[in-house]
Amino acid sequence: MRTLTYFIATSLDGFIADPKGGFGDFLFEGDHMTALFEEYPDTLPAQAREAMGIDAPNKTFDTILMGRATYQVPGGLPSPYPHLRQYVVSTRLTTTPPDVEVIAESPLARVRELKEEPGLGIWLCGGGRLAATLLPEIDELVLKIHPIVLGKGIPLFAGDTPTTHFAKATTRTFDTGVIFATYTKSDT
After folding, report:
1. CATH (residue range 4-185)
2. Residue 114 and residue 74: Cα distance in Å, rounded?
């Protein structure tokens, strides 16, 4: 069975973006970025992969799930991750390129189907409301914790969620102060 991983940047106070959906306050330079490029090249959009000359096969993920706001980030591409199977969960989005599928209803059921298919992992890219909806199916959290307090914004999980336990798998601290913390779903 495939794994659903919520791989996301977050502030110290648990926000994945500012109130308008921006993430410009996060750090985009430093040793944590080198690790990101080397270890998770699948998570880079097409423009970044092209600029960096990354044409390697996917290592971790072959599928991406995004909420509408994540997909329509300002300046975004109509097909931001052509090296992945792209899904956008939205009831309002109607037009996408052929390689981007819209999930308009039952995202939990669709994720369960995707997890049963063969392949690499499934990357939940954002946003917070979608993460709250899909929490029962999230197997792993990979949090890129940035040393900043935003004070307000889009929370890691936006909405009512059941208490869900995760166990620490790994942590890695970088000179920039960014921490990569990986947690796996726990039975307790």
Report:
1. 3.40.430.10
2. 28
